[in-house]
Amino acid sequence: MSLLLQVDTLSQAATQVAGEVATKKELTLMDIIFSGGLVGQVIMVSIFIMLFFAIYLYIERLMAIKAASKMDQTFMTQIKMHLQQGKLDNAKVLCASTNSPVARLIEKGISRIGKPLEDINIAIENAGKLEVYKLEKNVSMLATISGAGPMTGFLGTVVGMVMAFHEMAASGSNKIEMSVLAEGIYTAMMTTVVGLIVGIIAYVGYNHLVSITDKVVHMMEVNVVDFLDLLNDPI
User: In whole angstroms, how far apart are CA 11 and each of 3, 24, 226?
Assistant: First the structure.
């Protein structure tokens, strides 16, 4: 009988411990993220806004740059044919109907045919600067977010630590509750973790956009050189 009572007592104790563990595990990630008080929540919301803008800017610029990199492989061949036949109007129409930076640069050069080659080159360079600006539009915002995200996260951590120690000092108790201190610390550290994640995403996105933009710029330069060669020796 005594053995049965002991087993029943152990069973109840195990059930109680399991219930306490289950209760502790009910704390979700969102609870941890947004449990840092008003200041911590404001900082965390700011970081998530940065994350949203970083993803939006990356996708929008990626699609724009990919669209700019698409060009008919026979474009320059047709331009050469029109120039050799003296059909400048047909060449202009072809450029106007082709929505790409290369076509706009070639169109600018064709519109200057008859003027000194140096003037044509300068006109194309100026148009090229405008096209590069269009490709790089808002890309610098990703670089800003890649630095501002972690810094904002560090700010949240420092503010959270200051508030945690302030609560300890205001409690007036000589005994420090480690559970309260630990909760304040991991809540504060979450802002750093999320800020670093946002910074990494923005940094990788920025460098990828810069890489593919350089490829488009290189393609523009190659085709402009081919066009200028056509003007020097069109036949």
Answer: 12, 20, 85
Residue 95, burial from CB neighbour count under 10 angstroms (0-12, 13-18, 19+): buried
pLDDT in tens, 123-166: 888 888 898 998 888 898 999 999 999 998 888 888 777 777 76
Record the pTM. Answer: 0.75
C-alpha to C-alpha distances, 108 to 68, 111, 227, nearest whole angstrom: 17, 5, 11
Distance between CA atoms of residues 180 and 64, nearest Å = 50
- Residue labelled with tokens 């007036």: 172
Distance CA 66, CA 209 (A): 10
| Of 126, 88, 81, 135, residue with least CA distance to 224 | 126
Domain ranges across the chain: 36-235
Closest CA to 197 of 48, 83, 79, 12: 48
Side-chain-facing half-sphere of 53: CA atoms under 13 Å: 18
End-to-end CA distance of the chain: 111
